[in-house]
Design a protein that fits this description.
Elements: E1 5-10, E2 15-22, H1 26-39, H2 46-62, H3 64-75, H4 79-102, E3 108-111, E4 124-130, E5 133-137, H5 151-159, E6 163-166, H6 172-188, E7 196-199, H7 202-210, E8 214-220, H8 223-235, E9 242-245, E10 252-254, H9 256-275, E11 287-291, H10 294-308, E12 313-314, H11 318-332, E13 338-341, E14 344-346, E15 350-352, E16 354-359, H12 361-364, E17 383-389, H13 392-400, E18 405-411, H14 414-417, H15 425-434, E19 437-442, E20 480-486, E21 507-509, E22 512-514
Parallel strand pairs: 3-21, 5-6, 5-8, 6-7, 8-9, 10-11, 10-18, 11-17, 16-17, 18-19
Antiparallel strand pairs: 1-2, 3-4, 4-20, 12-15, 13-16, 14-15, 21-22
Helix pairs in contact: 1-7, 2-4, 2-6, 3-4, 3-6, 4-5, 9-10
Length: about 525
């Protein structure tokens, strides 16, 4: 049987740019995973991983013009956006090098033997070890930061896990280029290039998650695709962790006081957030609860003005464009829904942004799976929904209908942010949305997820399939498991657990912090 070609396509024209690769056969997936598994010992040393991550960042930076040009040709995201995304990607690689260098991610804990306790306590020394080969499923909307050289790959390599990436079909040439750069970086510091593998094709994705030598998986994409892979991971003879980011509505609640105080500012900010990257951000605000009345009308007017001034653009591929246009039209056709600025086609390949409005009561009247439930599902692309509520009870009823999200936002007035009693209405509203999302914002917009130690990018299902984060230093925890050593002689222990703390790592000994961290 002839190999199925993988084409690079220009979304601006729909034309093929060239044949990049072929879809991987089961034998080729097996070869990539087997090679990665054989290479995992090379990643055992922290020094080697630190050098690799920094070399990868340096090589990507040195190839910036080539990388951003390749990504723009396949995604139409534009050079300015992709330049920023590459900077984020290389910063992320360097940040994980610092995480490895610090060593705190090992969470070393030592409890010395204490025969006086009842029952007596033996000597216990706990650290963490890498899981093994990690399957990474690249995202469509971030061809760098959430794809081949992105956060899942960086955090897995930092943990000591080789990766095999399933490339996204929207940017296969970019994926091949970035994978080649990562392999060059590996070889430059003495590691085998097999620590980073790459495969293409839908079938390869299923083969990958089912492979017995794959120990965990990371995914960013749709609910449908992510859930299928999650179920496949759970159905294996030996199930594996599947850390998926699937879909999110990212609700926003505008209080009456906030609308009265700064309706125009909020409307303009929403227009920018809903159209950033042509609405193709996983944290795009897709449902905004706005009070009925003149203040809410002013906000809607400012939103309409902002969207009218927004440029049409191109989505990542023709399928996404069709799904966006049909999804927006289906929502706009529901009873009670209006489209002050209708999302629309712009030429044969582009789209124009828009927004819909609906009385909030329409979202809570009738069963949760009724036709208006569609408005409570993500529509990927430059559209948002204003749900106009009559009072706090109605707004709360809508929030009660929502599933899990990556983010939830409150737009408050100055007086509401000045502080109140812990059991006051603003605090209660904050507590209510905390149950909906992994990141809570006040007077901001969720687009833009900072790479920082305190960051959490995840949330209740279907925002994510686990309670871990895919962004920030603690993302490394997804690819590690704890091991405790009981009564093991000191010379046989891993170095980080030995007496005298020879590596100078952060540790807790009998509950007391020990350090400081020594350089490698």
């Amino acid at each position: 049987m002839a190999a199925t070609p993988v084409w690079s396509v220009d979304p601006r024209t729909g034309k093929r740019l060239g044949e990049v690769a072929a879809e991987a056969t089961p034998a080729e997936v097996d070869a990539a995973v087997t090679a990665a598994h054989a290479a995992r010992g090379a990643l055992a040393g922290r020094e080697a991983r630190v050098a690799f991550l920094r070399a990868a960042a340096d090589l990507l930076d040195a190839s910036a013009a080539e990388v951003t040009a390749a990504a723009d040709a396949e995604t139409a995201l534009g050079t300015p956006r992709l330049t920023g995304e590459l900077a984020r990607t290389t910063y992320q690689l360097r940040a994980f090098a610092e995480v490895v260098e610090d060593g705190g991610y090992l969470d070393v804990r030592i409890d010395r033997a204490d025969p006086s306790l009842v029952p007596p306590r033996p000597e216990l020394r706990r650290s963490k070890v890498p899981l093994g080969v990690v399957a990474v499923y690249a995202a469509s909307n971030f061809p760098l930061a959430f794809s081949v050289p992105g956060g899942d790959t960086a955090s897995a390599l930092a943990a000591g896990c080789p990766v095999v990436v399933k490339a996204h079909p929207d940017h296969p040439a970019t994926s091949e280029l970035c994978a080649a750069l990562l392999r060059r970086a590996a070889v430059s510091v003495g590691l085998p290039e097999a620590v980073v593998g790459l495969v293409h094709g839908f079938g390869a994705g299923l083969e990958l998650v089912r492979h017995p030598l794959v120990s965990a998986a990371g995914f960013t994409g749709s609910i449908r695709g992510g859930r299928a892979l999650f179920d496949a991971a759970a159905a294996r003879p030996v199930p594996i962790p599947f850390h998926g980011e699937l879909g999110s509505l990212n609700p926003v609640v505008v209080t009456p006081a906030a609308a009265a105080e700064r309706a125009e500012e909020i409307g303009a900010g929403l227009a920018g957030a809903a159209t950033l990257g042509m609405g193709q951000f996983c944290v795009k605000p897709g449902l905004v609860l706005v009070p009925e009345g003149p203040d809410g009308d002013r906000l809607a007017g400012a939103l309409a003005e902002g969207l009218a001034g927004a440029s049409p653009g191109v989505l990542l591929d023709a399928r996404m464009r069709e799904n966006f246009l049909s999804g927006a039209a289906e929502r706009a056709a529901l009873p009670g829904v209006a489209a002050p600025v209708a999302p629309a086609a712009d030429g044969p390949h582009g789209v124009a942004p828009g927004f819909l409005t609906v009385p909030a009561r329409r979202l809570v009247d009738g069963p949760a799976d009724g036709p208006h439930g569609l408005l409570l599902e993500e529509c990927f692309g430059p559209v948002t929904v204003l749900a106009r509520y009559a009072g706090p009870e109605e707004a709360g009823a809508v929030l009660d209908r929502l599933s899990g999200n990556l983010s939830a936002t409150l737009q408050l007035s100055a007086a509401e942010t000045a502080g109140e009693e812990p059991d006051g209405p603003t605090a209660a509203l904050l507590a209510r949305i905390t149950g909906l999302a992994g990141r809570i914002l006040v007077n901001g917009w969720p687009t833009g997820v900072a790479v920082a130690p305190a960051q959490h990018h995840g949330g209740p299902y279907p925002a994510a399939t686990s309670h871990s984060t895919s962004v920030g230093g603690t993302a490394i925890e997804r690819w590690l498991r704890p091991v405790v050593y009981q009564g093991v002689p000191d010379p046989l222990l891993p170095a980080e657990l030995r007496e005298g703390n020879p590596l100078g790592l952060p540790r807790r000994v009998d509950g007391v912090p020990e350090g400081p961290t020594a350089p490698l």
